[in-house]
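Objective 1b: paired records.
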Amino acid sequence: MRTTRPSRRLTLLGAATAVGLSATVAALPGSAGATPDHNQSRPTIVLEHGAFADAGSWDGVVERLQRAGYPVVAAANPLRGPANDAAYLRSVVEHVDGPVVLVGHSYGGTVISQAATGLEDKVKALVYIAAFMPDKGESSLGLTNKFPGSTLGQVIDPVSYTLPDGSQGADVYIKPDKFRKQFAADVPAAQARLMATGQRPVAAAALEEKSTQAAWKTIPSWSLVTTQDKNIPLAAQRFMSKRAHAHTTEINASHAVTVSRPDAVARIVEKAARTVR
């Protein structure tokens, strides 16, 4: 693993209608109404998963962070679009008492970049794990297409749907038989099969929707770059990390680094958390 200081085409079919969601969160670790414990002197770590995964993809990271004494929330990501997903995540963050370190994997990076804007007094650090770090006016898809290296467009399986109100859209999956090679090449085969079966689809429109905020411009950022990533090109990750002046670590891992290398992920999150006073 190499640590540094800051200094092709993917075609998705269809478009999905973004769905507005509001969060109802009760007794989260570090939240109002939760039972006080010794962890309250430490920031709460809020984890946001990305596309083709769910909150369970953080399990190994959660275990390590809790063992180190941090309160942790692994939030559910609706995967409908940056604006709506960020509003959902923001409600979770606002429900937590005390300072927060906000962590995003993959598309979750796009979400935390938008959700944390205006919450600088609460969100003290951003951590991007093999993640998008868009500027205003950029989309996840646009950043992927900006550099060669992603093979995601070759293995996606779009599924069209019609809602009761007549609106239409499309969700995007990774074909199960292609999932491990594309997403989780360094995850044991049996585990990767389970991940493929339980993958959460992302709305096609979510990857095309442009960001309206970029919290990494005002909040200190850390980045874990995965050099064997087939979803987000390595060059794109390096470009975004450098532009954000993030404290950057590179690791020889697949896109599913939260599952294959939870120790490395937990370490970089702890580095960010230790800066919070």
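Objective 1b, second protein:
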Amino acid sequence: MEPRPRSFYVLSAFFGLFVLFLYGPTITIGILSFQGPSGGLTFPMRGVSLHWFADLFQEQAVGDIWGAFRRSFALGLIVMVTTVVISVMAGLAFRKRFAGSGVLFYLAIASLVIPSILISLGVGLIFSQLGLKIHWATSGLGSQLTWTLPFGLLIMFAVFNRFDKSYEEAARDQGATAWQTIRYVVLPIIAPSLLGVALFGFTLSYDEFARTLLTAGSYNTLPLEIFGMTTNVTTPVIYALGTLTTLFSFAIIGSFIATVLIIQRRRARLGSDAGKGV
């Protein structure tokens, strides 16, 4: 076995430092959230306990943590569904060239390169000028869609560029209508990609701060609430909240991955059964 080149160890060390830099703050917050009742926001730890996690479920002197969580969760679900529906419809539409398709595509993804705070300011100003109430479920939804839709569109464009149209032709040869072809052929095939778009939509919305800052109105979403807590909360309860929200995010990602695996296993089983039937 040939010895590994020195560059291998250098690159491995560099990658290790990168991972530490990436996850170190999250791990540090997770550790400090287990401070004892007399613990503070920094090391050294003064005991180990679940005191600050329990404190989260008590009536808070400041903020509305669980109200903010419910708003972020509801907004994330709305953004997720809207992103999936519009992305699929746009992906189907862009399968054929039409007048202005190139301009429309670049306009759709242009918001990715515009500073998020300017998007938030612009949406807020539009609602104000139209006399509409600035609210997390309306103006907040609009500003967040400028962030999630471009990702969903790019994913669906890539999916449909690789999609084998012979499946649709076979369905039409069997007498399927256009809607039946989409429902029973296209959507089941692209289901894992739809879950990817849904995951993008929910997670990008759930932790979005800048585009919600000036469009949430009187009621904060969870990122805004946590930001507000950093200015007036001086106990590790904020670390406990960060740990729980991180675990919640991992749980959401894990559920989506598990769903994709179930779909793939079901496909493999159906394919195996079909092969045996032949």
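The chain is about 70% helix and 0% strand. The radius of gyration is 24 Å.
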